[in-house]
Amino acid sequence: MFTVPCGTSRRARNHKVGQYVSPCGVVRKEKFMHCQEMLLKERANIIDRMLNELYPSPPIPLDHSDPYTLLVAVLLSAQCTDARVNKITPALFALANNPLTMSSKTVDEINDLVRPCGLAPRKAQAIHGLSSILIEKHKGKVPSSFEELEELPGVGHKTASVVMIQAFGHPAFPVDTHIHRLAQRWKLTSGKSVNQTEKDLKRVFPKERWNKLHLQIIYYGREHCSARSCHGMECMICRSCFPDRKNKVTTKKA
Predict the structure, then answer these.
(1) Is residue 95 part of a domain?
(2) 212 flagged as catalytic
(3) Measured in whole angstroms, how far is the alpha carbon of residue 120 from the centre of its chain?
């Protein structure tokens, strides 16, 4: 709580943006923070409702047949489009679609097929390495915990989160470049980091919505609020949440 001298004019007492001044001249910061939280919740509800109307049943964008092929596809999607991954994986999974067969192939054989996905040969090395570990430590099965997944080569928190959601139905909120961008344009996060964005989104949306919502935001970002358009001013959600916005929003990259 902050106090303002009683002789200060009303205009002066209110000059600090974001402070609620009571009739007796007491600035109640906590009331302002409560109002801001209400505005955030209202905005989140609008976003949630509009995304549900647009994408009631968003499909999983990466083609796969089981947890293992999903894990490999998600790993390949790092710094690569889902569309390109879906073009690569049929040939890869024809070569090997399980850990035992994949671990019997050479890194060069794997790399010849996955090179178009970028980051060669690291992705091929990771696929070969994690396949061997799954055989040695997990009886050929993809583990269903964040800790065990993130111990695998090439598997970071985002990859593990996608697998936990789509293979095991565990609540998670993986943040990709689209989600990081839109969360900033919608003022749901400061965008300081991907980790911070994930924490902020988890805080504002109910847990039972995370798994579907992260896909809905991805599709919306691709189709309506891309990196090269809208800039927080043109798409239906940006206009609905910020009708008076005058300037383009500059976002931090993931």
Answers:
(1) yes
(2) no
(3) 24
State the DSSP H helix or E strand holding residue 20, giving kind and residue range, or none if neither. strand 20-21
Residue 71 in domain: yes
What does the pLDDT look like over 24-36, one tens digit per residue? 444 444 444 444 5
**48 catalytically annotated:** no
Per the CB < 8 A criterion, the answer to whether 225 and 231 are in contact is no
Sheet holding 26-28, edge to edge: 2-3, 26-28, 20-21
Choose, from 29, 176, 192, 200, the residue flagged as catalytic.
176
pLDDT band at 253 (very low <50, low <70, confident <90, very high): confident
- Looking at the structure of the chain, the number of domains it has is 1
Catalytically annotated residue among 41, 158, 187, 252: 158
Q: Domain holding 111: CATH number?
A: 1.10.340.30
Whether the CB-CB separation of 252 and 192 falls below 8 Å is answered with yes
The C-alpha angle with vertex 180 and arms to 174 and 66, in degrees rounded to 5, equals: 25
Q: What is the pLDDT of residues 109-134, one digit of tens each?
A: 999 999 999 998 999 999 999 999 99
Query: Residue 147 belongs to what domain range?
Result: 67-168
Mean pLDDT across 231-252 = 95
